[in-house]
Amino acid sequence: MSKLKKRLREWIVVIGSMLLILSASLAFFSIKYYLALPSEKSFADEGIYTFSPYQVLPGRVKNTQTGRSRRMNPYVTVYNVHYKAKDGYTYTVRVSGKSSGQKIVRENVPLQRRVLINTDNNTYITVEAEESAKSYISKMKGKYIVILALSAVYIIFYIVIWYVVLMKKRENTL
After folding, report:
1. How far is CA 18 from the centre of its chain?
2. Residue 77, strand partner residues
3. Judging by beta carbons within 10 Å of its beta carbon (0-12, 13-18, 19+), is residue 36 exposed, middle or buried?
4. I need a labelling partner for 90 at 20 to 30 A (CA). Which of 47, 52, 99, 104 fits?
């Protein structure tokens, strides 16, 4: 039983350390992306446009699986439905498969999207029709703050647990 307990402790330490590294990475990137968010004043609202689906195209993305599957197939095929507005703005949605994408194009159901132009770098994004630049930026800031908070909670939890373990060891050796 003691051997099993020792192995379990080793696994807990390894998994806890991996989660610590993941939490630290998430905290770093959430701060980085939070600080890189443009201000809501840098967006010009172009209004709501109607986007119509016009084609389904395959694309390749990195395979997120692990092990042999990833080694044998480093990229996987995904299908995207491309939408276009009359003024030339485009919007892309990833779909589950080619047939579901073709069905969307066949049905020709338009989408209402708001176009926001970033005046700092002359790019644009599309958001839901009821969103504004302010609500979009607020949503993104909230997302990054939640990720940072959860990461910080785990890092503090990890430090406290190790402090308790080390204090317990110190008491046992005295």
Report:
1. 19
2. 60
3. exposed
4. 99
Residue 52: phi and psi, rounded to 5, are -110, 140
Strand, helix or coil at 37? coil
Q: Say if residues 95 and 104 touch (Cβ distance below 8 Å).
A: yes
54, containing H or E segment = strand 43-62
Nearest CA to 30 out of 123, 104, 140, 138 is that of 140
The pTM for the full model equals 0.76
DSSP states of 106-162 as a string? HHT--EEEEEEEETTTTEEEEEETT--HHHHHHHHHHHHHHHHHHHHHHHHHHHHHH
Q: Determine the Cα–Cα distance for residues 147 and 116; give it in Å rounded to an integer.
A: 25
Angle between helices 2-36 and 133-173 (to 10 degrees): 150
Give the pLDDT confidence of 103-119 residue by residue, as tens digits: 999 999 999 999 999 99
Number of Cβ within a 10 Å radius of residue 106: 10
